[in-house]
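Pasting as-is:
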Amino acid sequence: MSVAIITGASKGLGRALAEALAARGWDLVLDARTEGVLRETAGAVGAYGARVEAVPGDVTDPVHRAELVAAAGKLGGVDLVVSNASALGAEPLVRLEELPLDGLRRALEVNVVAALGLVQEALPLLRASRAGAVIAVSSDAAAEAYETWGGYGASKAALDQLVAVLGAEEPGLRVWAVDPGDMGTDLYAAAVPDDDDPRPEPVAVVPAFLRLLDERPASGRYGAPALLEER
């Protein structure tokens, strides 16, 4: 049995990926800050027959990160870490001249520091896995200059660089940054509340993540739309 830790797993892409992995027989440790929503998600995911541990908390807390890895260890190890939890820095997004510096610090703590901290905590178990992998959920804002997306995009760009270096330092693992493309999520709604244009549901991009796990290409940065088009 394979075991995955997924942060930001109570809804959106995190939940969709959890359901897809559970349907494939993975056991899961799920993280989110809102306990009630997380436990409802864990119950739904567990209906696929997987063992599911819901561990509510804040990924910026090192004690919480240790709890996530310990829970996975009790299930048999860590084969996959998915860093999906994200912070925008400001809700709604604002231009850099208005961006609260505390908001930028929060985005960096959640999107970069906590993601690395969780991988550091899990590395011994990832190295022991026959197919250890790390997925960091990135954004096209990491590579493109969009007005008001500067703080969030900077944090995701930093995350991409950490993934690139980690892939070079850990050749026995697969380490992927994945830009999922446009999705209709609560995070996007909070970022740009006036944008009513329809966007794909997160479940639509999950096959791109599954393709990475199936084919295990080289560590690096991948775009979900391209992975889906190439199938």
